[in-house]
Amino acid sequence: MQLSDLSALRKRQQDGDYLLPAYEDWCFSRVPGTIADLLGADIGPRLPDAATDGYGDVSRVVVFLVDGFGLAQWDGERERVPFLRRFERAGTVTPLTSVYPSETAAALNTFHSATLPAEHGVIGWNVYDPDADEMFEALPFIRKDGSEPERIDFEDVANAESIYPELSAAGVETHHVTPFPSESTVPHTYDPEDLSTFLDAFAEAAEGATDPSYIFAYLPQTDAIGHAEGVDSDAYRETADETFARVSGAIDMLAETTDDDGETLVCITADHGLIDTDPDRNVDLSAPPFDLVSDLKTLTDGTPIRFAGSPRNVHLHLEPERIDEVHDTLTAELDARVFRKQEVLDSDLFGPNPSATFERRLGDLVVVHQDLGVWFGDEEEAELGLVAMHGGLHPDEMLVPFATATLDSLR
């Protein structure tokens, strides 16, 4: 596949109106292995060589992960945001698919472990683990009532190990610039509500890193405002403007603080893209014609298992005798793919080599709507009322950029 051949990737991965993950080559899941390989470490599968052709003697890799800024968002904003055009002139934008689900909780666990969702077992933002008899949000690690789960430890949310001890053993120093503390690397935190604090945290990382080094910077602001206002909104555009102004400032800062002993590679990517849904039409599974709550399995205390996956990646844990009828009703009433559990496993939708953790958390049915949110009315405002969403298989959710350029070319 040619480096920038988006049409070939789309054609190969297209399945009707849906786009499937390209786990075998051009997938976001292979970015961490690629970064490690550039720095002389081996921690997992990498992207094809064409993704990094021409980059040699790399001593520092800097990754800006802009949450929710998929390839459709890059293309939509590039004429308006000068920095994006500057980056294109200096380097290359390679199209990748996200993992399934195209959700932050699943994708970031992949990014930090170099394992696929089928392996690490984080099936979406919301997880039901029958062994622990718990429903919880994977990010953050809380129940719906705000309390911390009592029957599962945070360390057991993902069935995977962090890549950072391996990078450290290979002599690579890692720094994280994030709006939350990081325990597995050198942390540099900033206020997510005030992007002006990002540059100070990034400067601390850039000045403190000893090469070979890897600096990871996470910016979730575009995703957050997209959920609330939609990607086709002034608020989204203003947030994108500010985000890339900060990224541009961070690159300028790198140029001032980086020595010339080795090449610095700058990368911009995203965990997923976004699509605008319609809150007036998003589907409430608690209401007619579905009324699904009574069909659900329950926790041992009798609580129905409503929350697993997300509105674009719904996992239904059903009473066994109700699976067939619910499947038929959803298939008839929704413009959606309704996968049975065995279909998911046979298709490697979440990746090959499923772990026991993944298999027990996987729903009896997985519902992927073409362009709407599907959830339970208990969270009507928090979830069904969102505008932009992600998690499904729409091409605008699934396609993400992997933009690369040397620091010298960006100066």
Automatic annotation (TrEMBL):
Q: InterPro entries from the entry?
A: Alkaline_phosphatase_core_sf, Phosphodiest/P_Trfase
A Pfam family cross-referenced in the UniProt record is Phosphodiest
Gene3D superfamilies per the UniProt record, alphabetical: Alkaline Phosphatase, subunit A
User: Can you tell which superkingdom this protein's organism belongs to?
Assistant: Archaea
The entry lists its GO molecular-function terms as: hydrolase activity
Q: What protein name does the entry list?
A: Alkaline phosphatase family protein
Q: Give the source lineage, highest ranks first.
A: Archaea, Methanobacteriati, Methanobacteriota, Stenosarchaea group, Halobacteria
